[in-house]
Amino acid sequence: MLLNCYQQDFLEAGCDEAGRGCLAGPVFAAAVILPLDFIAGELNDSKQLNHQQRNQLRVIIEREAIAWAVAEVDNEEIDQINILNASFQAMHRAIQKLSVQPSYLSIDGNRFNKYPGIPHTCVIKGDGKYLNIAAASILAKTHRDEFMVKIGDQYPHYQWHQNKGYPTVVHRTAAIEHGLSPYHRKTFSITDPQLDLFSEIEG
Fold first, then answer.
1. Bridge partner list, 120
2. Quick one: CA dihedral 110, 119, 106, 142, positive or negative?
């Protein structure tokens, strides 16, 4: 069972991101402050949930959270500052957008650029340990998926409505055959899926 938050002495926001490993689209981040008595039976790391479960939980989180916010860093800025810094920047923007400012931050992962004036703790696999980080994981994931489906209508051959910009065989093949869209991260390497297959055979 997940704990509500990392500590209870200060008002805490859990933070997580979605889309770091994608070839296209922004990286999204969310910050969520939950009531200490918050209960949602299925709430867990968004990667452990299916699409329907995530969307159902998103409604509950957005309705019952003390405060929540989602922010993004687009592909062009990712190319300028690198994906790690872009992930931190997206979290900073989400924290800044909160209608209630927290006094403490719990961050999913092992690294973070300090947010001015607010202490933090990094928690490896925190989205599977604390409800507020899990909630942030779900909001970041669902808001990003929604964005990718929307822009995917303009570029159907990449099948973003299914892969959400992640480096699937279909996505990489389409990028090689059709070239890059304005939403692709140009600093990310798009390898030929046939080379992967060849490596597996050789290995």
1. 105
2. negative
Which residue type sits at 42? E
- Cβ partners under 8 Å of residue 32, min gap 6: 13, 14, 15, 61, 65, 67, 68, 132, 135, 136, 139
User: Mean pLDDT, 10 residues at a time, over the chain (203 residues)?
Assistant: 91 98 97 92 74 92 97 97 97 98 97 97 95 96 97 95 94 93 92 51 35
Please, what are the domains in the chain? 12-152 (3.30.420.10), 156-202 (no CATH)
Q: Which two tokens stand for residue 110?
A: 């092992």
Tokens 């093949």 — which residue?
Answer: 173
- How many other CB atoms are found less than 10 A from the CB of residue 51? 10
- pTM metric for this prediction: 0.91
